[in-house]
Amino acid sequence: AYRISSDPYNIMAEIFMNGPVEVSFTVYEDFAHYKSGVYKHITGDEMGGHAVKLIGWGTTDDGEDYWLLANQWNRSWGDDGYFMMRRGTNECGIEEEVV
Question: Where would I find the Peptidase C1A papain C-terminal domain in this sequence (predicted)?
């Protein structure tokens, strides 16, 4: 199977050279209520796993590094179906399973 190293710089290089990648992560209750900003798990029980498309990365004006991801739930969820998750800290295991 084709896998990418969990190092954030390797993930960024893969996206830059070949386009979006698929990632999986642990979903907690607070993720269902995400609307905007950089998601960080704060509260709630584990609900299971979820796979999404990682399409890019960036840094907020406040200096917080994030991944930009596309969710498939629907466009009324999150930020028009997209969300940002903290980058470089393996938030919710997001950097462990990259294909």
Answer: 1-99
Q: Which residues pair with 48 in a beta bridge?
A: 27
Residue 86 corresponds to which tokens in the numbers above? 């903290």
Average pLDDT over the chain reads: 95
Asked if residue 45 lies in contact with residue 29, where contact means CB atoms within 8 angstroms, the answer is yes
pLDDT of 21-38, one tens digit each?
999 999 999 999 999 999
Q: In the prediction, which pLDDT does 1 show?
A: 52
Q: What are residue 64's DSSP bridge partners?
A: none
Range of the domain at 20: 8-98
The token pair that represents 55 in the structure block:
């399409």
For residue 16, give the CATH number of its domain: 3.90.70.10
